[in-house]
Design brief:
This protein is of the alpha+beta class. The protein has a single domain, classed as Deoxyribonuclease I, Chain A (4-Layer Sandwich). The chain is 25% helix and 22% strand. The protein contains six helices and twelve strands. The longest helix has 22 residues. 35% of the residues are buried.
Length: 322
C-alpha cells in the first residue's frame, strides 16, 4: 500500500494550525509572573484569644478599572496583616485569587485547597465553584481535623454562581488547648428571600450532623449572609433552634446609637447601604466573645480592598457572662 503525500497547501495549513496551537498553549500554560507585595510576616504575642474575621473580598471581575483585583489585592493583604486574625472566613475568592493569596499569606493554611474529581463530568467542572468560600487559619495555632465543602441546596441554583450558598466547613483543633475543637462553617448566603431561609435551615442540618460527629466541639457560622436582623425569618433560621445547633450573634445591637449605620456593604463608595450588618459571625453560646466590630479600612479615598467592610470578633477563654 503506497502512502499518499498531502498536497503542498494542505501541509502548510496543517503546520500553521500546529504552530497556532503551540503558541496558544504556551500563552495559557506559561506561569504568570507573581507581582510581589512586600509585607512583614505576622508576629503576634502568644495570646489565648482567637480573633475571628469574616471577609467578602469580592471576586475577580474583568473591566472594574481602579477596583479591579490587581488594584485591590495589595491593599487587602495590608488590611489582613493589620487585623491579624487567627481564623478568616473568606467569601467570593475565585481559584485564581486564592492561588495569589496563598503566596502572600504563608502563615495561614486554607481550605478547601482544591476541587474533587467526580464521576460526573458536570460536577467535576463545577467543582471549583464550590471552593470560592475559603477558610484560612493560622498554622501555628490550629490543626485541621476534618472538613467538607459544597452547595447547600444543589437542586435549587440561582443566577449568581457565587451566591448559590456554597459552603466550606472545617474542624479545627486549638494547638494551645485553650478552646475546644471548633466547627467553622463559612457561607455566602443567597439574596432571594424564598431560598435564603431554606438555605439557612439546611446549613443548620449540615452543622448538626457535624456536631453529632464531634459532640465536644463548638460552632462558628460566619459569612456574607446578604440579610440582616431585619429579615426576621432568615435571621431566626441562622440562629438555629434548640433541636439543631443554637447560635448567638456576636454583634451587640444594644451598642447601636440612634441614626448610626452599621451596614457592611459599601460598593466602593465609602457609604453603607443598610442600617444593620449583613456580614455576620454566629457562635455557640458556650463560647465567650467580645462584641463584633466592623473594621474600617483606613485607605485613601476611592481605594478599597473590597466592596464589603470586614467584621471581627474575639473569642476569649472562659464562660460567657450572663
Amino acid at each position: 500500500m503506497r502512502l499518499r503525500y498531502l498536497p503542498h497547501r494542505t501541509t502548510l495549513f496543517v503546520i500553521f494550525l500546529a504552530a497556532v496551537a503551540g503558541v496558544v498553549a504556551f500563552i495559557l500554560l506559561k506561569p504568570r509572573p507573581m507581582i510581589p507585595v512586600i509585607q512583614p510576616a505576622i508576629h503576634r504575642p502568644a495570646s489565648p484569644d482567637i480573633r475571628v474575621l469574616t471577609a467578602n473580598i469580592n471576586l475577580l471581575r474583568p473591566h472594574e478599572g481602579i477596583h479591579s483585583w490587581s488594584a485591590r489585592r495589595g491593599m487587602l493583604i495590608k488590611v489582613l496583616h493589620h487585623i491579624r486574625a487567627d481564623i478568616i472566613g473568606m467569601q467570593a475568592s475565585t481559584p485564581a485569587q486564592t492561588a495569589w493569596l496563598v503566596a502572600h499569606l504563608p502563615a495561614y493554611a486554607h481550605f478547601p485547597d482544591g476541587a474533587a474529581i467526580h464521576r460526573n463530568l458536570v460536577s467535576t467542572l463545577a467543582g471549583p465553584l464550590s471552593t470560592w468560600n475559603q477558610i484560612w487559619s493560622r498554622r501555628d495555632r490550629f490543626r485541621r481535623i476534618a472538613g467538607t465543602f459544597g452547595r447547600v441546596r444543589p437542586n435549587h441554583p440561582q443566577n449568581n454562581p457565587t451566591e448559590n450558598t456554597y459552603f466550606s466547613l472545617e474542624v479545627l483543633h486549638d494547638r494551645l488547648g485553650r478552646f475546644p475543637d471548633l466547627i467553622v462553617l463559612d457561607v455566602h448566603l443567597r439574596h432571594w428571600e424564598k431560598n435564603a431561609a431554606k438555605s439557612a435551615e439546611k446549613l443548620h442540618e449540615i452543622l448538626s450532623k457535624w456536631q453529632n460527629r464531634f459532640p465536644a466541639a463548638k460552632a462558628i457560622l460566619l459569612g456574607d449572609m446578604n440579610h440582616s436582623r431585619s429579615d426576621h425569618a432568615i435571621y431566626q433560621a441562622l440562629l438555629g433552634t434548640p433541636t439543631t445547633v443554637p447560635l448567638t450573634d456576636t454583634f451587640n445591637y444594644a451598642l447601636h446609637k440612634p441614626g448610626q449605620q452599621w451596614g457592611t456593604w459599601e460598593n466602593y463608595t465609602n457609604h453603607v447601604y443598610s442600617p444593620w450588618p449583613t456580614d455576620l459571625i454566629f457562635v455557640s453560646p458556650q463560647l465567650a466573645h467580645r462584641p463584633a466590630k466592623i473594621i474600617p479600612y483606613h485607605m485613601p479615598p476611592s481605594q478599597f480592598p473590597s466592596k464589603h467592610l470586614f467584621v471581627l470578633t474575639v473569642l476569649t477563654p472562659g464562660t460567657p457572662k450572663k
